[in-house]
TrEMBL record:
<dbReference type="InterPro" id="IPR029058">
    <property type="entry name" value="AB_hydrolase_fold"/>
</dbReference>
<protein>
    <submittedName>
        <fullName>Alpha/beta hydrolase</fullName>
    </submittedName>
</protein>
<dbReference type="GO" id="GO:0016787">
    <property type="term" value="F:hydrolase activity"/>
</dbReference>
<keyword id="KW-0378">Hydrolase</keyword>
Amino acid sequence: MKIYIVSGLGADFKVLERIEFPKHYELIFIDWLIPEKNEPFDAYVKRMADKVDDSEPFCLLGYSFGGIIVQEINLLKPAEKVVILGSIKSDKEKSRFIRTGEVTKIPRILPVGLFNDKAANVYAVIRKLFDPKNPKLLQYFKVRDPYYLKWSVEKVSEWKFEENPNVIQILGDKDIVFPIRYSNPDYVIKGGTHLFPATKSKEVSKILNEVFCEKQ
């Protein structure tokens, strides 16, 4: 069976490369697409979903913003299992910081130039303060198209979604992007920051092997 995987906002799959998935699964990585000008979120999700072959059973896995995307894809093409890492199951799990962006619409009015490469680098340096075990944080964030980054921040803040109880959620207890206090995850990674798939890969690998190897 295939597992279709979507990584985090601006991240390539390097952040997930240390995870050992069950060997009898085929991994299919779905690369981020650059949104078209003023492209609606549902249209973007459909383009991402086009890469999923639903003629046979499959699973979905998403990290961070990718967790949001795979849950949306699941509405179009239902999967056998959906697993999200460092992500949220519904808009009710948004942090106060993200809710502020939703209410004030600030992300929408921010200039695209704020998301240029220089700004992205500054943002990454700040993030290091919260994840000192990853001094080379920038190696994980490769998709730096300013329009894509601005669009993604807007969509995270605006996201509305009813929780699907069948979605399996794995969160780190030190995550500052999606704080665990707003969620009730199925699995908790002790000491895990938002980058726990990279820093706690052994724990994540063990959980994923349990999840994907258990009978439906």
